[in-house]
Structure formats: structure tokens, C-alpha cells
Amino acid sequence: MSLETRIPEMNEKELENLQANAERLVKSGSAKQQAEAERLLPMIADAMAARKVTRAAELAEKKVTRAKDLADGRARRAATKKAEAEAAARPDDEDED
Question: 16, 59, 62, 92: least CB-packed within 10 angstroms?
């Protein structure tokens, strides 16, 4: 499997390492290594940008879900408190006899 086909499957840490190695090879590698590194750097940058967008979307979705969960919890607590207050305010049928 060639490196360029593996790039989309790499995680962030692997992409960071690959980018660092490619940047190093551009500066100090042989002519063939420099050419390959220069060819791969844009692909690496695109993959890293895509990961960043995906991660931001995941975090935004998680934030919305968390906010909904908190709102649901507050609503349940308020409903319970209201029901308890109404039950306490109702006169007991047994006490009237």
C-alpha cells in the first residue's frame, strides 16, 4: 500500500509525525526524497485540515447533545419539584373526617 493511499486512514498523531518527517526530508533529504516529500506535504496538510473540521463538527455535536441532556434533566427536576409541591398543598382526604 502506497503512502498516499494510507494518508486518509492515518490518525492525527501519525499525520503529525509524517508531516514532520516530510518537512525534514525537504530540507535535508536526497533529491528523490525531497521530491517525494514535497509531493506528499499538500496531501498531508489536506488530511490534517479534514481531521480538524471533522473533530470540530464532532465537538459541536457533542456540545449540543450535552446541552439537551442538561435541559432535560432540569425539566425533570422542575416537574418533580412541582408535583411534590402540589401534593403537599393538597389537603389529605383522611384528615377531613
Answer: 92
* Whole-number Cα distances in Å, 51 to 1, 13, 78, 80, 88: 21, 11, 40, 43, 55
Residue 25 burial (CB count, 10 A): 19
Q: What is the DSSP letter of 79?
A: H
Lookup: cell for 55: 473533530
**pLDDT tens for each residue of 64-96:** 999 999 999 999 999 999 999 999 888 765 555
**Of 32, 3, 1, 5, whose CA–CA distance to 17 is shortest?**
3
